[in-house]
Specification:
The structure holds two protein chains of two kinds.
Chain A: H1 4-17, E1 24-28, E2 40-46, E3 49-56, H2 64-69, H3 73-81, H4 88-103, H5 109-138, H6 142-162, E4 171-172, E5 175-176, H7 182-207, H8 210-216, H9 224-229, H10 235-238, H11 246-249, H12 270-293, E6 313-321, E7 324-332, E8 338-344, H13 346-351, H14 354-358, H15 363-373, H16 377-381
Chain B: E1 6-8, H1 13-36, H2 42-58, H3 68-105, H4 121-131, E2 135-137, H5 142-158, H6 177-198, H7 202-233, H8 238-247, H9 266-279, H10 291-294, H11 304-329, H12 342-368, H13 374-407, H14 412-446, H15 449-453
Antiparallel strand pairs in B: 1-2
Helix pairs in contact in B: 1-5, 2-3, 3-4, 3-11, 3-12, 4-11, 5-6, 5-11, 6-7, 7-8, 7-9, 7-13, 9-11, 11-12, 13-14
Classes of the chains: A alpha+beta, B mainly alpha.
Chain lengths: 382, 454
């Protein structure tokens, strides 16, 4: 097992040789239309029923952690955008936090509030994408378009705020890059009034749809013990009844100043995961509204030089992202470059439990369960 | 590594011969049906050819009369070509219609670029598909792979002779009409299975298994619905079924009062509609081409014109299914005469409106519903549709029997004991036997997948 590719060749090679008459190996991905990027699963199926699963990752590995070591601290920040490209704001946040802690920076209050605004808008956009793609995975086209019409506006707002649509690079060491202006705030309020009826419509499209419900209720059931054993976090863990949300438990940015609920559901199946993410969109909307109403005055960033040298030391910090807990471990040796940056990506840990849930399901359920995990492979492979 | 190589053929001869072959086959098949049903026998054809040459010889002197046989040949050929062109246009333009309706439901515009409001889009798509090369995977069974789209497409075209476009506009009113439709439905499935088997692709293979299971299951409730309609109208002919709804009676039977069969057969209508959607592989029953699970299902390995044949066959099948539903339940071309149009044209308008309504509902389903899972699909058929269809059939039988007694009381006192009780007993026996058989064969399928596995 010295060569890391050994694992793949032995696994796939020996397994594929053992095809019998009533079982065969089905290769799903990395170019399959609904593996959410470049995931590859080998399924041993008996008819439609999955008997064995070999998940294979690594097709989107770009060495983010290693590249970070060869750039200045400021240069490591845009790389985080490329990890979880659907929730890039929270990735910026995750790297900013330990560096600020190491340098003992005082971040202005307005900056913290702007961070919350950006994070929650991005969470909304990310969950909207989940809503649409789960529909696509189950074979329904309309939820996708309903969700993307709203997501488009959310992306537009983030573009107004940060100047970018996907890779924002907005949350910086010491604050945020750009301040919010009155026209942008007006656009945010327009979005909120327009989003409410669409939000109701999206609920009816799934909850009032019998086939949708039969496809997701009771599919891919998980227990809290199993999920905790595999280090699963985020909406997937909350969907099995564990009330864990770092925005409440260990508030970062200005989350302790906001009033919102942690959504949980007790079944732990695909429906619960859908339910949690859907309800979290409502909570995000609540937070965005509070942000706009009570935005404090002051500077939006504490001015920093482009090249700076944090004091030597190491820090591990965890933040909440739309997909779970994103942990960042940084080591600084006092130079302009980070000595080591290590990310604990939530999608990666969440995927580890997938294998357990797929045994004994049908091919259609495999796609539904994978869709309900909402993984981002930029983050899994880094 | 050998499987990764592709054998590529870029000769257009294949496409041309495919088109010519299909044309020839359709002409031959339809002519054969016409000949079998007594419309036209082989003799006039020979006569016409002979007469043609005789006339040629004679006509050097001056113009003569066109021989009857040749006249027939030309007329029939023109009719067939007309049906072919109309069908291809319907197949192509129902795609545009579907895209526009879906776009309307999903709050977007649909195709707008090719021609005004995108009405030339199907033609552009067709031209694009004509230009693409047909790739055959190396491990595939070339003959099956080549034959499958043809076998899929031809029954769809053959089914078109049944469509009652309007009053007196049924191309061929076969005396076995509705059974013919049923047989063609099964024939088209053969094409799907051949495509799945001949592609050397696991996704296709799974899709093929799914398609066969689905088709075999959903033909049963469909057959029960058809039998109920046949009981009500007393005939298998499409024309008679429509007449039974317009006039209330035909030469063979009927209810004695005019009524669209959707009223006495509402359950039957729902079941037949669902089964027809399942037969044409449409959402929510599109398991054979489940895009998110099986890439493209049975036509994963098809490109270009061959893929287009599957595509056209699907839409032509939808059109035929909608026409049959219209004919069986919605009174066919029945409707009040419209001003300025005359009887024939207004019947065509009514027929088209009803077919469009059915087509719209099918697209509406696609815009609303996700796909069922395989076991849920089977459960819906075996646990819900088949029992309801059987009960519907039984009730229809009792109703028709009572109605016949009412209409002809003078016939019954003698034979009542013999026929009524025995037939009811027979029906009850058949019901029990079929339920038993269905349970026996399907009990394993009816369990949820998880349970069966454990």
């Amino acid at each position: 097992m010295s060569d890391p590719t050994d694992f793949l060749t032995t696994q796939t090679g020996t397994l594929l040789e053992k095809e019998s008459e009533d079982r065969f190996w089905l290769n799903m991905g990395p170019q399959h239309p609904s593996t959410h990027g470049v995931f590859r699963i080998l399924l041993e199926t008996e008819g439609e029923i999955v008997k064995n699963v070999v998940p294979i990752i690594g097709y989107l590995h770009r060495g983010v952690e290693k590249i970070s070591e060869n750039r200045e601290w400021m240069g490591a920040l845009p790389l985080t955008d490329r990890m979880d490209y659907l929730g890039a704001m929270s990735n910026n946040m995750a790297l900013t936090l330990p560096v600020e802690e190491l340098m003992e920076l005082e971040v202005p209050r307005r900056a913290q509030w702007l961070r919350v605004l950006a994070l929650e808008t991005n969470r909304l956009a990310s969950h909207l994408l989940f809503y649409g793609t789960l529909g696509l995975d189950l074979g329904a086209l309309t939820p996708f378009f309903f969700a993307f019409r709203q997501r488009e506006i959310a992306q537009y707002l983030l573009e107004l705020l940060s100047g970018q649509r996907i890779t924002f690079n907005y949350i910086r060491y010491g604050g945020v890059r750009l301040d919010i202006t009155i026209p942008i705030e007006r656009e945010f309020r327009k979005f909120i009034t327009g989003f409410r009826p669409a939000y109701e419509e999206m609920w009816n499209l799934v909850e009032g749809n019998e086939i949708f419900r039969t496809r997701i209720i009771g599919v891919g059931k998980s227990t809290p013990e199993l999920l905790i054993k595999h280090g699963v976090t985020g909406p997937i863990l909350r969907a099995s009844g564990v009330k864990r949300d770092l925005r409440k438990d260990r508030p970062f940015a200005a989350y302790d100043e906001f009033d919102f609920d942690v959504i949980t559901h007790d079944k732990g199946d695909t429906y619960s995961r859908w339910y949690c993410r859907y309800k979290e969109m409502g909570e995000s909307l609540k937070i965005i509204e509070q942000c706009l109403d009570g935005m404090p005055d002051g500077p939006h960033i504490k001015k920093m030089p482009f090249f700076f040298k944090p004091p030597p030391g190491e820090i591990y910090s965890v933040t909440d992202t739309p997909r779970g807990d994103l942990g960042v471990y940084i080591v600084s040796d006092g130079s302009r470059f980070p000595y080591r940056v290590r990310y604990r990506a939530p999608s990666f840990c969440n995927l580890s439990v997938l294998k357990e849930l797929l045994y004994g399901t049908g091919i259609g359920d495999v796609i539904a369960i994978l869709g309900s995990f909402d993984p981002v492979f930029g983050e899994v492979d880094r | 590594m050998k499987l990764l190589e592709w054998r590529v053929r870029r000769v257009p001869v294949g496409k041309i011969s495919l088109i010519l072959g299909i044309l020839a086959f359709v002409l031959f098949a339809t002519w054969k049906i016409w000949a079998l049903t007594g419309y036209w026998s082989l003799e006039p054809a020979f006569d016409s050819i002979r007469n043609f040459f005789l006339n040629l010889r004679d006509k050097f002197g001056g113009p003569g009369e066109l021989p009857m046989g040749l006249y027939n040949t030309i007329i029939i050929t023109l009719k067939l070509l007309g049906i072919l062109v109309v069908l291809l246009l319907i197949g192509a333009y129902s795609t545009l219609m579907e895209r526009k309706i879906l776009a309307f439901m999903q709050d977007r515009l649909g195709p707008t670029r090719v021609g005004p409001r995108g009405i030339l889009q199907p033609i552009a798509d067709g031209l694009k598909l004509l230009q693409k090369e047909c790739i055959v995977p190396l491990g595939a069974d070339r003959n099956f792979h080549y034959l499958a789209p043809v076998i899929c497409f031809i029954p769809a075209l053959m089914g078109a002779v049944l469509i009652p476009f309007g009053k007196g506009l049924i191309p061929v009113d076969l005396n076995v009409g509705i059974l013919y439709f049923f047989a063609l439905g099964a024939f088209g499935e053969l094409g799907i299975f051949l495509a799945a088997w001949g592609s050397n692709n696991k996704y296709s293979a799974i899709a093929g298994f799914r398609a066969v299971a689905q088709l075999v299951s959903y033909e049963i409730p469909m057959a029960f619905c058809i039998m109920s309609i046949v009981l009500l109208s007393g005939s298998l002919k499409i024309g008679d079924i429509i007449n039974a709804q317009i006039e209330g009676a035909t030469a063979y039977g009927g209810l004695g009062f005019p009524i669209w069969f959707i009223v006495p057969q509402f359950l039957g209508f729902l079941i037949f509609f669902l089964s027809a959607v399942a037969e044409t592989n449409r959402t929510p029953f599109d398991l054979a081409e489940a895009e998110s699970e099986l890439v493209s299902g049975f036509h994963t390995e098809y490109t270009g014109l061959r893929w287009a044949f599957f595509f056209l066959a699907e839409y032509v099948n939808i059109f035929i299914g909608a026409s049959i539903i219209t004919a069986m339940y919605l009174g066919g071309y029945a409707g009040p005469e419209l001003p300025f149009l005359g009887i024939t044209l207004s019947s065509v308008v009514w027929f088209c409106l009803k077919v469009f309504l059915i087509f719209f509902i099918i697209v509406w389903l696609r815009g609303t519903l996700p796909r069922l899972r395989v076991d849920q699909l089977m459960m819906l058929c075996w646990k819900r549709l088949i029992p309801i269809a059987m009960a519907n059939f039984l009730l229809t039988g009792i109703f028709v029997f009572a109605n016949t007694v009412r209409l002809t009381p003078q016939l019954w006192p003698v034979h009542l004991e013999n026929s009524a009780y025995t037939s009811i007993a027979a029906i009850v026996f058949i019901l029990i036997a079929m339920f038993g058989l269905a349970w026996f064969f399907a009990k394993d399928l009816l369990k949820p997948i998880k349970e069966r596995d454990a």
